[in-house]
Amino acid sequence: MQGLVYSKVVHFPVNNIQQKVYNHHIMKRTLAFLTLLVVGFFGLMHAFPVLAADPLGVNYGASSGLSGQDLRVSIARVIKFILSFLGLIFLILTLYAGFMWMTSAGNEDRVGTAKKILWGAIIGLAIILFSYAITQFVITNLYEVSTSGAYNAAQ
Asked: pTM, whole model, 2 decimals?
């Protein structure tokens, strides 16, 4: 019985050579899976004692020589910086669309393009503001729950 061939993909081995290639492929996949399983198991075995010493990872920066600041606060600052940068892009797009509209001299194509850019920028601003609100809510509550203290953004 011949193997079914669809667009040069053999669904089961047809002859001895294809059987050897198929077996080799299966062996490589199995070996890769078992290697990842063993490495992952032993890697996790060594990670647990380290995590037990500092369960929240608060002192990680101080022990590595980088900073004594809480990692969650650093991540919150990075997210706020990125969202602020996106707000700057909104401002630039708004100014560009306004300039294009004002200098269109009655050209409907340029006015239409300016309106599209302006609406896109407004929708982008709405997405940025909602992202900022969600990020602020999550970071504040995560910090308060994990440290049993009030979140201070100026830390």
From this structure: 0.49
| pLDDT tens digit sequence for 87-137 | 899 999 999 999 999 999 888 999 999 999 999 999 998 998 898 888 888
Domain count, the chain: 2
Same domain? 34 vs 68: no
Distance CA 87, CA 129 (A): 9
Phi, psi of 152 (to 5 degrees): -120, 115
Extract the tokens encoding 109.
């194509």
Instruction: Note down the domain range covering 17.
Output: 5-53
CA 111 to CA 105: how far, in whole Å?
9
The share of the chain scoring above pLDDT 70, in percent, equals 65
SS3 readout for the chain: CCCCEECCEECCCCCHHHHHHHHHHHHHHHHHHHHHHHHHHHHHHHHHHHHHHCCCCCCHHHHHCCCCCCHHHHHHHHHHHHHHHHHHHHHHHHHHHHHHHHCCCCCHHHHHHHHHHHHHHHHHHHHHHHHHHHHHHHHHHHHHHHHCCCCCCCC
Residues 47 and 70 in one domain: no
